Amino acid sequence: MRLISFLPIFDSFDFRNGNGFDPDMDIFETDKDFVIEAEIPGVSKNDMKLNVENDILTLEVEKKKKKEDESFIFKESREGKFKKIFSLPNDVESDKIKAKFENGVLRIIIPKAKVLIPREITLN
Predict the structure, then answer these.
(1) CA 94 to CA 111: how far, in whole Å?
(2) How far is residue 59's CA from residue 13's CA, in Å, rounded to a whole number?
(3) Core-most of 11, 28, 62, 66, by most CB within 10 Å?
(4) Whole-prediction pTM
(5) What is the C-alpha end-to-end distance of the chain, expressed in Å?
(6) What is the pLDDT of residues 24-47, one digit of tens each?
(7) What single-letter DSSP state applies at residue 70?
(8) Tens of pLDDT along 72-109?
(9) Closest alpha carbon to 77 in 20, 3, 121, 14
(10) How many CB atoms lie within 10 A of CB 86?
């Protein structure tokens, strides 16, 4: 397995009164794709923005407060803004990136360039 340049190059959190919002993320690869999965429960897809420009992938999320008039007895949930910026490797097809948000998990599929997909060569 080779080292890829998918590690985030910038993280930004909005810490309001100590309530920082930082979703769990995983990055892995298959034979054909790189995949980023972010666990973002309690957020609507309308509160997310995903952008790619010049081999830079940016994910922005805002998790809004539930209700202003609620008086919590105990609270572990967090809200705020979150932004993560990834530098994409040169060997991906950034114009073919797809994303799906289901059951609180954002799955970003980044296709590898065709030259990277392993294939078996038949001997004649």
Answers:
(1) 7
(2) 12
(3) 62
(4) 0.76
(5) 30
(6) 889 998 989 999 999 998 889 899
(7) -
(8) 788 777 778 888 888 888 888 989 999 999 999 999 99
(9) 20
(10) 23
Domains and CATH numbers, the chain: 8-64+78-116 (2.60.40.790)
Both tokens assigned to 49: 């923005």
Q: Taking residues 57-77, report their average pLDDT.
A: 78
Q: Bridge partners of 24?
A: 39
In the chain, the percentage of residues whose pLDDT exceeds 70 is 78
Instruction: Centre a 10 Å sphere on the Cβ of residue 65 and count the other Cβ atoms it contains.
Output: 11
Side-chain-side CA neighbours of 63 within 13 Å: the count stands at: 21
| Residue-level pLDDT at 78 | 76
